[in-house]
Here is the input.
Amino acid sequence: MKIRIKLLFMSCVLGTSLLTTSTSVFAKNNVNRLAGQDRYGTSNAIVSQGWTQSSCAILVNSQNFPDAITASPLAKKYNAPILLTDTSSLTNSTKEKLQGLGVKNVFIIGGVGVVSSQVENTLKSMDISVKRICGQDRYETSVNVAKELGTSKGVFIVNGEHYEDALSAAPIAAKLQYPIILVDQNYVSDMVKNYINNQVKTNNTEINVIGGQDVLSNNIVSSLNPTKTYNQSTKYDRNLALINNYKGQLDLSTVYLASDKGFADALSGSVLAGKNGNPIILVGDSNQSSINSYITNNNVNNLTILGGTGVLSNDVVARITGNSNNSDNNTTVAADKVHQELQVYDNLLNDTNWQRNNGIIFYSDGKSTIDNHWIIDIDQDGVYEMLVHHGNCEANLTISVITYNNGNIKIEHLPSDHNYSADYSKSEKVLFTYGGRGGSNYITGYKLENGHCEKVFTAFSNEARYSESEQAKAVYKINEQSVSKKEYEETFKKFGSIDHLK
Here is the structure.
């Protein structure tokens, strides 16, 4: 019965969202897609569109965004493409692209923990000169990239824990040669303070701070004394506000579209977009109709899609361009897809052999140890995941994430310590798992990226061990760093409304 109720609820939601279609139609033959089989293929397609040869290239980690998102203005300075690599070894496709372009100089953005010495040595063996720009953390790296860029008339300051605002700024920053500087939501590092005080404010440089209260605290924004603040309530609104403000310096005849569910495609495309002053609009699940309105009202003639159909599907593009003319059928197909997913999950809940083979049942008699289950679309991509709370004793309770998609079933067991519940932040697409014992509580946040639950947040507190008069003894940690009780409580506000999974 629980499965059936959830099916009815989600089908209604799908029906409502898919029946809302755009009214302005964009010419289909003016839509171009730059894509490959993966982020490396897409990166190479973007590079081929903009460069036939280049003496210089910027190399960044394909999976780790903090250092990478500062690279676009530097790439534009040297008319260099941004190329992607793995941490430990230079990707073959990237190596071939470097050779094909005739690259002689490479800037590596990030320390050896981000792009290893082995990658650097491979480049040198190819007779390529290498310069590494890095710092003790992402914030210092952003400052060092800015110093390499040189004197500028402006700067963009964004939260370094999220990539969306940086990607919104990237092509504009490339065009204008404004560096992108990273700060924490509640903290500005000394390196950043010194850079702003000594090299930004002294030159009367334009200071643009991008971020609403979901990513930047009011105290941090005011301490930066910005020339202009983009503090709209959502990343999508900030994206369009930024484009609108620089509309006179941009060419809106062509606009690039990139999914907000990953950084690599938008980053790779940001230099190509910045070369001609074209902006990038981030596409999410809730802003497709507003993008349609924007491209119509601003006389956009050409759209370039960054990424393959697995990232931005043809249906999504059709809704944005107003060419989706069969919404009733789309709604039926989507509802049928959800029904199929839920039926598969229902079967798995009753399949003791499958549960035993996949580490959910441990008892030899086949007795189920499933305590609870939830069904939720974690990354809001239209594919629903099933979370199963299970274990063979209280100390071994854990949560497993099961995904059924296109006939394939994937299961991932999340690490836990006396796991007892889960929460979900819809606005940030973060799944939280809770555990603890002896008065201590552990919270871990996960994002679903490329089918894998990537840990993005940790919190720890042991205040339950102490009475109110002994609170000074309590310990609070966020991402392994000790914080005050107030800072601990304030941290969770950036995730917006958090729903408890019941």
Notes: Residues 21 and 149 are 44 Å apart (CA to CA). The chain has a mean pLDDT of 85.
